Amino acid sequence: MNLVLVSQSDFIAEDVISIRDRRRLEHITHIQQIAMGDSLKLGLLNGQMGVGEVIFYSGEEIRLSIRLTQPAPTALPLTLILALPRPKMLKRTLQTVATLGVKRIYLINSYRVEKSYWQTPLLSKESIHEHLLLGLEQGCDTQLPEVTLVKRFKPFVEDELKNIIGNTQAIVAHPYADLPCPAQITHPTTLAIGPEGGFIPYEINLLENCGFSAVNLGQRIMRVETVVPYLIGRLFA
After folding, report:
1. Which of 25, 111, 147, 223 is most buried (most C-beta within 10 Å)?
2. Residues 25 and 126 grouped into a single domain
3. Looking at the DSSP assignment, which residues form a beta bridge with residue 236?
């Protein structure tokens, strides 16, 4: 936790917050090892960042006098369309994209996404929120990403995706494409990444008809949890 995230519910006065939940308390006391008068880097969820000075401490509560004067980091100009990963990868992937500054995420179905993946409790609003917060705390960011779940591939591509793409450059990672992936771009982009094994040819055709260009990443085939940070880093280095 490189940034302590707080919310409006933590405020007990105009510039004083009270932290009582176990996760943040344990991190502040055991990892950061605070003492009276110490300062912590913190941020208001979906608001500004700043510092908080410890004005009260007990085993059950920490109170901080806060000053929020800094804007959150600039978000990446990226919309991520991601085939739903297997549950054990989903947690890490959500944290990673939040850390890297992605603010618009669609988790979609595809032919190679197992039906059982959609039954995981990790897709609950509470679980998604928790892992996005962990990513924001790691990346020192306050702006919560928006995650949309899409269980039907074809209607989504044919009826909704063109509006989502808008005027962005739309690319889909595909190991058998001829076009190499672009690098170090600055313009708005929509990036589609398939499941383990990639999108099937039928899905690639639908995406291309919608305006996507299929690009390859070279000879290496990567897992989803590897290819997501790799691609984002390549595109927005």
Report:
1. 147
2. no
3. none
| Residues 6+ positions from 165 with CB-CB distance below 8 Å | 79, 190, 210, 211, 212
Amino acid letter for position 144: L
Tokens of 45: 């969820």
Answer yes or no: pTM beyond 0.90: yes
Collapsed DSSP state (helix, strand, coil) of residue 172: strand
Residue pLDDT tens, the chain, 237 long: 899 999 999 999 999 999 999 999 998 988 888 889 999 999 999 999 999 999 998 889 999 999 999 999 999 999 999 999 999 999 999 999 999 999 999 999 999 999 999 999 999 999 999 999 999 999 999 999 999 999 999 999 999 999 999 999 999 999 888 899 999 999 999 999 999 888 999 999 999 999 999 999 887 778 888 999 999 999 997
The last residue of one of the domains, among 21, 50, 70, is 70
Regarding whether 95 and 162 lie in a shared domain, the answer is: yes
**Domain co-membership, 208 together with 115:** yes
For residue 16, the 8-state DSSP code is E
In 3-state terms, what secondary structure has residue 18? strand
Question: Are the C-beta atoms of residues 209 and 201 closer than 8 Å to each other?
Answer: no
- Same domain for 107 and 154, yes or no, is yes
Q: What is the tally of structural domains in the chain?
A: 2
